[in-house]
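cron nightly-structures :: item 1 of 1
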Amino acid sequence: MTEADPALVALAAASDLQASAWERWGPTLTPPLTTLPAALPPEALAGMIHDWGKLQPEWQKQVERTREALERMWSQGVVSIPITDPRYPPQLRSIELPPLVLHVQGSLRHLSTGVAIVGSREPSERGQAIARSFSEKLAHLGIPIITGMARGTDQLAARHGAKAGGVVVGVVPGSPLDTIPLLCSDEYAMVRASGCIVSETTQAVEVTPRSFLRRNRIISGLARLLVVAATRTSGGTINQLEWAWRQQRPSIVFDRGAEPGFQQKVKKPAYHFVPEHRLVPLAEDLWTAPRMSPQTAL
């Protein structure tokens, strides 16, 4: 597949258009089949998108915007992996609404499953400590760390995991070339060097608050286990736990990193409350049991 391959450009444009539609209408689009042909003609995309009638008038403009963005990304070392590519992570391909394309900056060999560390953008002191220590321990165990690259908990996991010599996979809401928020620019550089930055969109898509919620399904979709180091009673971490529950990914919440009232807020059996001293043994156990469901994990 070459950079000029029209099927790849069309699929990337469809990914951008789906993401833009998500920002406006929510996740109302039908996911693609997992058995797509290797060469996907642009006209076949209509059959993959449930709300094609809403999106069709914007299609040609989107193709041109995406093509220009792809050329900028490719010139800076980003690799675009379509869902039909054997390098596409199989565990991600199987989720609800899988990304049509993954744009990766960094080492492709690190684009694999791992343990996700996520949490509040304003973690408590205990939440900060667990994000730091747990990411360092995962790095020493050789287990890849997946995180969302936002400030706060994600930022700490990326920084300390990379500093400890671990592999970090950063999943971002926009292009891999963007640094959002700018406060995390140092961590972006560290992750690009130690692992990879991953996204489903190019710079042709504007990043909004909803983009972070859309990104959450990719974080848990890549992970074998989700660890919440710190959380409030509302916000993106609640959304992340719901995605993990829908995807049958075991989730554990550090008991001293959650605000009072958190357990009442999340009513589904979507997570396990775990004390700090049990986190690393659980990570090792769950890492060796990929078929373990959230209901039977502990």
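cron nightly-structures :: done
The mean pLDDT is 79.
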